[in-house]
Amino acid sequence: MIEHGKHTVVVSPRLARPIKLKDRAPLATLDDALAYLAALSGPMAQHKAWERAAELGRDACRSPTRERVTALARQIEHALFVTARCDREQAAGTAAMPPYFDSALKSAHEKNIARYQGLLESSLTEHDRRFVERRVAEEQAALTRILRKNQPLAVA
C-alpha cells in the first residue's frame, strides 16, 4: 500500500520473479497471476496442477503474504511445465493424457455443436450462417477425432 497525499493506492504484491508465457506478457504481480488463472477454461483449467494453482490463488488473494504469493508462483510454473509437456506429447502423438481431458474435450465440443445448431435455428445473415455452419463442421470433426482415438482396435 502506498500513501500519496490524501489517497491510498493499493499495489499488488510482486512475484519473486516474472513468469514468462508464450502467448502474453509475463506475470509479474499477484493480480497478473490471478487474472491469468481466471482466464483459464476447458480441460486445462481442470488439470490438477491448475486446480491447485487456483486454490493457492484464492489463499493468496485472501491474505497476500510473501509465502502465499511465492507458493502460487511456484505452482503456476509447475502447471505451465506439466501442461506444456502434455501439449508436446500430444503433438508428437505420444500423449498419455488423463482420461478426463478427452471427456472434457468431448463435452466441450458437444456443447459447442448444440450452441451453434441453436444459432442456425435463429435468423442469420447468409454470411453468418456460412460461418456458423463451418464452425459446426469443425466441432464435429474434432469430436470425431476424439471418439475415433478412444475406440478399441479391432482384432482380426
Q: What is the domain tally?
A: 2
* Overall average residue pLDDT: 80
Strand order of the largest sheet: 1-2
Shape call: elongated
Layout of strands and helices, then pairs:
Blueprint: E1 2-4, E2 7-9, E3 14-19, E4 27-29, H1 30-39, H2 42-46, H3 48-62, H4 66-92, H5 99-120, H6 126-149
Antiparallel strand pairs: 1-2, 3-4
Helix pairs in contact: 1-3, 3-4, 5-6
Provide tags for this entry.
156 residues, two-stranded antiparallel sheet, 66% helix, mainly alpha, 10% strand, 6 helices, 4 strands, elongated
Explained architecture:
The mean pLDDT is 80. The longest helix has 27 residues, at 66-92. The protein has 6 helices and 4 strands; from the N terminus they run E-E-E-E-H-H-H-H-H-H. The relative contact order is 0.09. Strand 1 and strand 2 (7-9) form a beta hairpin. The chain is mainly alpha-helical. Helix 1 (30-39) crosses helix 3 (48-62) and helix 3 (48-62) runs antiparallel to helix 4 (66-92). Strands 1-2 form a two-stranded antiparallel sheet. The protein has a two-stranded antiparallel sheet with strand order 3-4. Helix content is 66%, strand content 10%. The chain is elongated. The protein has helices spanning 30-39, 42-46, 48-62, 66-92, 99-120, 126-149, and strands at residues 2-4, 7-9, 14-19, 27-29. It folds into 2 domains: 2-92, no CATH class; 99-149.
Quick recap:
This protein is mainly alpha-helical and 156 residues long.
